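New to this. Comment on this protein:
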Amino acid sequence: MESIAIEGTTKTPEVRLNPENGVIEIKGRSIPENSIEFYRPIIEWLDEYAKNPNKKTTVNVQLEYFNTSSSKCILDIFKKLESLKKARNEVMINWYYEEDDEDMLESGEDYESIIRVPFKMIEIVD
């Protein structure tokens, strides 16, 4: 299974998917023209990864901002991870937020209340 590395732009996040060490990273801004199209390869990769996952999957989400359509796609990613956890795999989501960004903290808490995967809220202090 291949790793995926998508470089970030002003509208799309940097994405790193590594099946070898089970680390998934999403970082930056997520306001793509077409969120479904942007996130499709990530969702497909997760479907493939779920067939033979690393025994521990760590997800690092460090978004500055995301729009409504991205939030739905992020939820879809988290649902895939929830299925992975239900299949008795270890999954941890690290949700990073800037110390003064209450909205991003609340977004992480909202996802945590929906998805049955452990979340760790990590404050970034500048």
The two ends are 37 Å apart (CA to CA). The helical segments are 35-49, 68-86, 102-114.
